[in-house]
C-alpha cells in the first residue's frame, strides 16, 4: 500500500494496517449502547495512527465497557474489578515500547478503582485511559455508581440516589502531575475521534471521560444533553480539540478555554450548570514515570549484578 502526499510523491509503507487488522470478536453490547461508538473510534484512531496490532495492548477492569479488549484485534487483558489501571501501569513499566490503552467505567474506575485512579494519574505513564461513564453499573443491572445523579432511582436506591454525584473532572484535575483531561459525549463522532486521537498523541496518561449512552439502565443520564444542546459547553482553543464548522454549529454554548490553564480548567470543571465538552487540560511536560521504571531494562545480567553488589555495599559495616 502507499499514500499520496500533497506534492504527489508517494510514501511506500512496508506494512499498511486497515480497519480489518484491528477487528476483534463480535461486540455483544445492547442495541443503542454508546460503547459501539467508542469501539469504532478506537479502531479508526489505531488505523489512522498505523499502530502495529502486535505492539498494542488494551487493558480493562470489569463492567460492560471492560469487554473492550475482546473487540480489538490486538493484545488484551480483561482484568480484575477496579484494577485496569495498575495492570496497565505494570505492562507499561516492563514493556514501555508497547502502546497501552485502558477501557474502564464509572463504577470500575471511580469506586472500587478510586485508589489506583489517583496514583495512576500521578504516575503519568504513557497510555490512553477511556472512561465509559454512563452513570450506572450496567453489567450488574442498574446499581448506583459514583456518578449517578442525585435522586436517580436505581436498584440499590429505589427511592433515588441520596448523594450528590462525584465530579471525575475536578478530582482528576486535583491530582498532582495530571497531564491530560478531556470530556466528550459518545454521540458526536468527530469530537470523539479528535479527543481520542489527541489523547493517543499525548505522551503521558490521557484521561478521557466519555459521556456514554446506556439506553437500557440510565437513559436519563445522557438524554437531557442530547435533547438540549444548550446544556453542553463546547471548549474552543487553538490548542484544544481540532473542530470544524460542522461541529461548531451544533453547540450554541461555547467558551474559549486555553487547556494550558489549570485554574481555568478547574473553574470549567466545577461549573455544574453545563457539561463541558473538549480538552480541559494539557501539560505535555509533566514527568512520565516509565522514564524511571524503564531504567535497567536493557542491562545484561552482569550489569544488574554489579548494581545489586553496589547497593549491598551501602550496608557493609
Ligand atoms: Fe451498554 Fe447499558 Fe447494555 Fe451495558 S447495559 S451494554 S452499558 S446499554
Task: Walk me through this protein's architecture.
The N and C termini lie far apart (66 Å). The chain has helices spanning 35-48, 84-94, 106-112, 114-123, 168-173, 189-201, 219-227, 245-248, 262-270, 290-293, 301-313; strands at residues 2-4, 10-12, 56-60, 75-78, 99-105, 127-133, 180-185, 205-211, 232-236, 254-256, 275-282. α1 (35-48) packs across α6 (189-201). α8 links the parallel β9 (232-236) and β10. It is an alpha/beta fold. It has a single domain (25-288), classed as Thiamin diphosphate (ThDP)-binding fold, Pyr/PP domains (Rossmann fold), CATH 3.40.50. The structure holds iron/sulfur cluster. Iron/sulfur cluster (SF4) binds at residues 29-30, 33, 35, 64, 134, 138, 214-217. Iron/sulfur cluster is lined by residues 29-30, 33, 35, 64, 134, 138, 214-217.
